[in-house]
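subagent[fold] <- orchestrator: predict structure for attached chain, return tokens only, no commentary.
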Amino acid sequence: MDPRDLESLVEQCAAMLLSDDVNILDKGIQILRGKYIVTASKQAEQLARIAQEIAVYNGGVVLKKLWEGLQLRTSEGCPKPPTTYSTGCNFALSILSSNKVVVERCLKILGAKERLAARDIYRTLSGMAVQEARSLKRIGAAVEGPSFNTLRFGTRLRNICNFAEASRVFREGMKDVAEEQSIFETLGYLVSPEFLSKLTAFDSWKLRDLLSRLVESLAIAKDSQLWALDKGLLKLIAAILEGSPVKEPNLSPNFKPDGSPNQSCAASLVFLLETEAGVEKMRAHNALSGLKPHKQKINGAPLNRSWNYIETRMQGKHAALGALRYVGRWKLKQSGDGYVVLPVVCSWKLCTAGPETAGKKFGKCALCQVSRYCRL
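subagent[fold] -> orchestrator:
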């Protein structure tokens, strides 16, 4: 993309996202969304650059506006998402926060200290998601595909996932909150039979998929594995497995699930058992007895035969990963601090260095401490 075109697009998109008019806000979202639903790496890099430019735009004013806006209460029964200002702000932030630079910027500007901001963001998003979930009325069985709830609940969870994947500080904030209310106590209602029975098949899958993605983030990151086990992670894994079928049904004629909650849970358990400390912690929580009812689902996940590895490790024996070694594909997403959906790219508009990788770290701008620059 020509640098001048990029600057113009960022200005245009930022102005729309700052608007109080929900229709104009929606146009800004469509710009982001049009580039978000892509698989080509170059297009992903373009969106990453746009997201990073918006993060530093006028000192982060767009991110502040979206954060304030998403906290406004939404009304039920909206016919076509996003039709409320709050939901639109939430959706826009869920796209932008797929980039690690955006997450870091949010933590710097949304609180007096980053860890305090992390606590507030986690409490706010999880609290709103659960409160809205508890007030939800049952949706008719005839509804196919995503409903408004996928956007409303799902984007709040997606934001939590994005922050947890990208930031050690955010995970530390989650830990602080978990000292008062465990992860399961905070989020468990979202996979309760009472709640899942109210949802369409698509919405049920999406929420379980997002929660299993959050579980993955905490299980992969070394800084969160042990405390998360002490604060309800195993209960959340068991609840996700309990609410998931052995095989997901066809959710709609034109949709094939791109994720498996069972697979994510199985992978997370493998990660948690990589170290002896993890084995001891899971044994202390009597993990085998809690997971045994879900043996078929764990073994039936695409990882295949995970249960044998889990059981052997829990018995204190050495177990070869064997075919399970390809769970490493999750770790390819890691950048030493969790993993993100969008890459981090150099902020120099003419840069051709490609995205940041675990072996190729970019430096932070000395002035703003946000923008990234390669060392070419």
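orchestrator: received. Logging for downstream: The longest strand covers residues 363-364. The radius of gyration is 21 Å.
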